[in-house]
Write a structure and sequence with these properties.
The protein is of the alpha/beta class. The chain has a domain of about 180 residues: EAL domain (TIM Barrel), CATH 3.20.20. It contains ten helices and ten strands. The chain has an eight-stranded mixed barrel with strand order 1-2-4-5-6-7-8-9, surrounded by four helices. β4, α4 and β5 form a beta-alpha-beta unit. α3 runs parallel beside α4. The radius of gyration is 18 Å and the shape is globular. It starts with 16 loop residues before the first helix and ends with a helix. The structure holds ligand C2E and calcium ion (CA) (2 copies). The site of one calcium ion (CA) has 4 residues, from β6. One calcium ion binds next to β6.
């Protein structure tokens, strides 16, 4: 998975893991990380409900490198906290810029679930929100699960702390990796994003269609938003709506884009011709 021409895919080879992490430590300091933004919309009204911030590495020699090439290594390293702080800083800085131009756009930031084991994470996040004057309610944190949370009780306490401060949470890539119904029950998040692997061939794949339909009902009963990710075809929009899924993200809406392209994209999106169903 990953976007072409936007750093989602990159053929350039990176050095071995240790060398790459040393380069990444420098990249964080030298501001080589940048964020792309992808909209999430309501399929029935075409309303833009927010943007997901997706990191890329603007490498001096190798060009734009997508997160699959470095996030897994960073997540298992001591760099994770500095990397996470940097991504939050970039996303909040962009959000503050949009705010200053009168656009109060919601922003979703990807956070490795491992950050929930760091006692300093919430205070640091709150300081960054205060610095950029972004209200907590304007952001949500998408928890990506690449490793089993060692301490579920601690994770739960952190989730409550975030919620008490008005920060929304979302379970990302639901159905893939380690995410489970235990997570949903213990964390009671207001949004669940179904992994894109289950959002394909909905007309012919009975398993995927049944899963989307039942998760849509499940989320509705819970009062949580249900988001289909990786929606690549416009033809899937009515299919998803028919299955009860009203919120989607994917190339059929827009590819991830640079921060400066977001407001022009919003202006185009608001034009009636584009807002009509395919
Ligand atoms: P994700 O959170 O599931 O993000 C969605 C990924 O799907 C993005 O890949 C996006 O470009 C891609 N995508 C969007 N629409 C479509 C589509 O219609 N079809 C297909 N095939 N793909 C689509 P990207 O940007 O390469 O990010 C990959 C993963 O890297 C993310 O998956 C997330 O787990 C991680 N990641 C990205 N940014 C960050 C970050 O700032 N922090 C952390 N911890 N992880 C990040
Ligand atoms: Ca995500
Ligand atoms: Ca995802």
């Amino acid at each position: 998975m990953g976007g072409r021409g936007e750093g989602g895919e990159c053929a350039a080879a990176l050095p071995g893991q240790d060398g790459m992490l040393a380069e990444m430590a420098q990249a964080i300091r030298r501001n080589e990380l940048i964020m792309y933004y992808q909209p999430k919309i309501r399929l029935d009204t075409r309303e833009v409900v927010g943007f997901e911030a997706l990191v890329r590495w603007q490498h001096g020699r190798k060009g734009l490198i997508g997160p699959y090439h470095f996030v897994p290594a960073v997540e298992g390293s001591p760099l994770l906290a500095a990397f996470t702080d940097k991504t939050i800083e970039l996303a909040l800085g962009q959000c503050a810029l949009w705010q200053a131009r009168g656009h109060f756009l919601k922003i979703a930031i990807n956070i490795s679930a491992r950050m929930l084991e760091d006692d300093e994470f919430v205070p640091r996040l709150l300081r960054q929100l205060a610095f950029y004057e972004v209200p907590a309610a304007r952001i949500s944190l998408e928890l990506t699960e690449t490793a089993l949370l060692v301490n579920l009780a601690k994770g739960q306490a952190m989730v409550h702390q975030l919620r008490d401060h008005g920060v929304s949470l979302s379970i990302d890539d639901f159905g893939a990796g380690y995410t489970s119904f235990t997570y949903l029950r213990e964390f009671m998040v207001p949004e669940i994003k179904l992994d894109c692997a289950f959002v394909t061939d909905l007309e012919v794949n009975r398993f995927n269609a049944s899963l989307v339909r039942s998760l849509a009902m499940f989320c509705e009963a819970l009062g949580a938003d249900f988001v289909a990710e990786g929606v690549e075809r416009r033809d899937d929009w009515p299919t998803l709506l028919g299955l009860g899924c009203r919120i989607a993200q994917g190339y059929s809406i827009a590819r991830p884009m640079a921060g400066e392209d977001v407001l022009p994209w919003l202006r185009e999106w608001a034009k009636p011709a584009l807002a009509l169903p395919a």
